[in-house]
Design brief:
With 131 residues, the chain is an alpha+beta fold. α1 crosses α3. The radius of gyration is 16 Å and the shape is globular.
């Protein structure tokens, strides 16, 4: 159950009480202010969400995408790096320098189930939701 929380004049609405999600924050979260949404800001990741849904290139400080394939596989585990290298990739989403999701020319969406940092986990959630 989402319960609106007032912080100044801006309402903050967690998705589920006590569980922090990408664009929302629970009251106990240490970065409560940084996750705040309001009417003028919108989602912190709105640019990424829209671009990923449309399979367009974009860049933010931590998540970005290109049309095509990147040469470096960053922290992608060896087996997944091999799949990425072998695939005929037409669209790649990366968290920092690691591909976290891609679409091959056959239309297959690949999102490796790999555990990374909290930030990259948030990026993976965006990719699963919008790719």
């Amino acid at each position: 159950m989402a319960i609106p929380i007032e912080m100044g004049s801006t309402p903050i609405i967690p998705l589920v009480l006590g569980i922090c999600r990408i664009n929302y924050s629970c009251p106990g979260h240490s970065n409560y202010q940084s996750h705040r949404m309001d009417e003028t800001m919108g989602s912190r990741h709105a640019k990424a969400e829209k671009a990923i849904a449309n399979r367009e290139a974009f860049r933010t400080p931590s998540i970005h995408a290109i049309v095509g394939k990147v040469h470096s596989t960053g922290m992608l585990p060896t087996d997944w790096a091999g799949k990425y290298a072998f695939d005929d990739v037409e669209y790649t989403v990366m968290s920092y320098d690691t591909p976290i999701g891609w679409v091959n020319n056959g239309g297959e969406i690949v999102i490796p189930p790999v555990k990374y940092s909290q930030t990259t986990t948030q990026h993976q959630y965006i990719v699963r939701s919008y790719l």
